[in-house]
Automatic annotation (TrEMBL):
Pfam families in the record: Chorismate_bind
Entry protein name: Isochorismate synthase
Taxonomic placement: Bacteria, Pseudomonadati, Bacteroidota, Flavobacteriia, Flavobacteriales
Domain of life according to the entry: Bacteria
Residues in Chorismate-utilising enzyme C-terminal domain copies: 102-296, 315-360
Amino acid sequence: MTEAEFFEEIKAQFSQKLPLVVYRKPKEDTLCSIFQNEDSLLSVNNFEETGFVFAPFDQEGPVVLLRPDRCGKLPGYTPRAGCAKKGRRPVLSAHGKGFHLDLVRKGLSEIRSGVFDKVVLSRSFSMPTEAEPLDLFKNLVEKYQNAFCYLWYHPKVGMWLGATPEILLNVRNRTFTTMSLAGTQVYRGDENPEWGEKELTEQKYVTDYILDALKGRVDDLKHARTETVRAGKLLHLRTKISGRLKDSNLAEILSALHPTPAVCGLPKESTRKFIVSHEDYPREFYTGYLGELNFQVERKRNNRASNPEVQVYKSISRQTTLFVNLRCLKLEGSEIKIYVGGGVTKESDPEKEWEETVSKSRTMLDIL
């Protein structure tokens, strides 16, 4: 399939108002597309299904399943600079700053009172755009090679785009990996900078929560050293965690992990209630998760050229790869809604928390 054919198929699906997703995994050059042939709104029942899932922040909401009636791939895709129409750089407004500062102060008050240890507080803002969805997607792919970049559409739900650096869960057969990702600073040319106490504490909260949540549910649970990773113009702290599922308990593992302290807080239930009660908008799919559920992956068992007869033997594995829906936007006609947030701990300063959301908003603003 040529590049032109790949994107024409996507445009045809849009024109018929039928569900689709097009995406590129981190550090890969293959674009993948999935099309559902009719507009039924499907949901996951037990995570034994196969398809592309899109889950909201609120665990009570249904996990949308996009059935893979048709799939496409475009290997070796090289995005061209400046795919979207050129326009003026969006001007960041301070609208909503007062509310967000008060929200952070309320969170700090609850922390000091011992109600919870950390809470992730977010905001949204809207602005007009004339950009085409596919142009925005191409710009995401060009700018954020280390992120999972996607364009997702369902006529009964809406259109979302994003570039997220955080894996929620990767499972191949019974082996899984996940990560804790917390702490943020602007990249200034040094990929191994010093980190402050606030960011280090925040990262430890997330790592400890994930390890405790998985204890007893998986075998051979272990974690690697914490490292600094870059996502566009931002740096984060990351700790990889791995193990083996005991049985077919993917639904149980996802329930334990989502929403993580990186997008909700600690303890999970009290911070979730605070977020729902005090943020001035519904998060919907922001800070939810999305990705491939139970896809079959075919691999050769022997790649040595000296033994070609062995190459006919292939192994089939079942793989699930899910990402946390960070750095995203919702496209509604000629307007986009952008979502940003940050973790609040006892060391937080409201003004700095506001500035962190401004820095994070540039991930999406830079593609316009």
